[in-house]
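User
New here, help please:
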Amino acid sequence: MIDIDEANKIIEERMKRLSKSHKTKVIAKLIEEKEFGWIYGYNTEESFLNKESLNILLGGGNLVVNKYDSSLVEVSLSVEDIIIGINTVDRYMDLKYGISIPNEKERKEKRREEAKESYRKLELEQKRINENVLYKIFYFFKNYFRGY
């Protein structure tokens, strides 16, 4: 079992490699301590210092250091994961131990159905607006040419 100091050393080593491969300084910040280890977020130093900076790493996730076996796991979440409420711990347990995320498929399917319904409503509203605009244009020209 390792302590936080050892975890920080593991993270520092990863940050050196990431900095070298991205040709910019990459740093990590401890986000949360869990019973199994520590969760770190990472990005470019510039993005941590200046929130308006465009010098960011896209597509990166969080890093989890396991206190029992000192393993390091990179955990990325998709937009869909975030929307349906899957978090870093859920995904870590799935990646590291194969513990399925409860109702993941059902949650994703429900979200897809909700998105389809929202899109259908949006299409109907757009059709109504278009018909209303066409009616107004027709009415305008009908009255305009009535005078001739």
Residues 116 and 122 are 10 Å apart (CA to CA). The first strand starts at residue 26 and ends at 34. The chain has five helices and four strands.
